[in-house]
Amino acid sequence: MNRRSGQNGTIVVQSGYYRVRWRMDLDGQGQQARVNMSEKLAPVVLDKDGNPKPASQAVRRSAREIFERSGANSEERFNRVVLGEASFRDQTKAYLRWAGTRDRRPIKDLSSIEAALNKWILPAIGDMPLGNVNNITVKPLVDTMKKAKLSAKTVNEYVKYVKQVVGSLRNGETGEPIHQRKWDSAVMDVPVVNRKQQRRPTLKANAISQLVNLSQGQEQALYVLLAATGMRISEALALETKHITNGGRTIEVRQQVDRDTPRIVKCLKTDAAYRDVDLHPDIAEYLQAFIDGKNGLLFTTREGTPHLHNNIEDRWLTQRLTAMNLDEPGMGWHAFRRFRETQLRGKRCQDDINVFWMGHEPETMSELYSHLFEEVEVRLTEAAQVGVGFEIPAYVAPKCSKKSVEPEVEVAA
To answer: How far is C-alpha 137 from the chain's CA centre?
Structure first.
């Protein structure tokens, strides 16, 4: 209500009675449409000269109770009636449209945010008026996520989405948020992120070698590619033959597979994700054997569509890791990326080339000033020197019938 001063109600004398008067906003008519309201309180008390006495404490108390019951000063009513405020769910739609199309740092890949909103946030507070979303009303959502064993990092991230949606409703004249909130993590009981407790498992060199040797065809090639490049799984699954350059030594990362649907999208996670990744000569040779005769996508389903990473994680990777007694929370596709980063650091790869290959944002001034990423020959030499850290097999095409081109997973006894 900081956009309009509140009312107290006015006590007047009319037709022998004390009455309380106030003004009430009309539904859907904007800030200027208000109607005068009044309600009878008590018979007027006269003094010895026959003039009405000032209203007593009891009359004033009764007037205040009637006025408060009317909700004329209610922020919730002001937001709903005057501003025509929508629910949190409706504002979420407006926020996503704005976040994806704004000129300043647009969010190019909204799929993960939408997934979190649809699964956790909207079922809990989606139908709540936006003005009612605050520290107290968000706390049950936080408690639900903690009971479901979501990590502290994930809970904090999802609460951040709530804050952004609430703050996205702004005054059209000033650009300031309509709902000024002083968010308090202690009141919401948001868990503290302890980096030492975060689940960041990685695969070791012998595990990578075992995964590669036990698999074949697309599955094997995917393991080799991820471990040798550190590419994100969505990037690897969107690779096409046209992205392989420099005689197979360089991969251009320009697109990814959508999170939930088997389609290619041109946006990547960050601007830094648009990059080139250089390969060890032996990996380049393996990759050339794998793509021999192919045109278009390197990894496809039987229908020729891109794989969804969750599907093949369940069907390929998780079964392998379970058989190897290595499966644990967090041990998914990103474990290959952690393996590659460990390999690069262990072999003292030049920092700015490391950052470029992994698709990280430069942080130090040295990384910002350096243009080694433009020196292709330097990058190719570095790729050969740092190696890959696991046994590279010779590619052998799987034996399969015409009806099935996806190998069945064979696990170690």
So the answer is: 21
β-strand pairing of 250-253 with 244-245: antiparallel
104-152: pLDDT as tens digits: 888 877 888 999 999 999 999 998 988 889 999 999 999 999 999 898 9
Q: 265 and 255 in contact (C-beta within 8 Å)?
A: yes
Whether the predicted model's global pTM rises above the 0.85 cut:
no
DSSP state of 304: S
Token duo for residue 305: 């569509």
Please give the Cα distance from 360 to 378 (Å, whole number). Answer: 19
Phi, then psi, of 243 in degrees rounded to 5: -90, -5
* Nearest to 69, CA basis, from 36, 130, 24: 24
- List the 34-43 sheet strands across, edge first: 10-14, 17-25, 34-43
Contacts of 118 (CB under 8 A, 6+ apart): none
Whole-number Å distance between alpha carbons of 333 and 331: 7
Structure tokens at 105: 């740092």
Q: Report the C-alpha gap between 94 and 313 in whole angstroms.
A: 34
Q: Would you list the DSSP string of 143-154?
A: HHHHHTT--HHH
Q: What three-state secondary structure class fits 43?
A: strand
Nearest to 257 by CA among 301, 206, 309, 218: 309
Q: What is the pLDDT of residue 29?
A: 41
**C-alpha radius of gyration, the chain, whole number:** 32
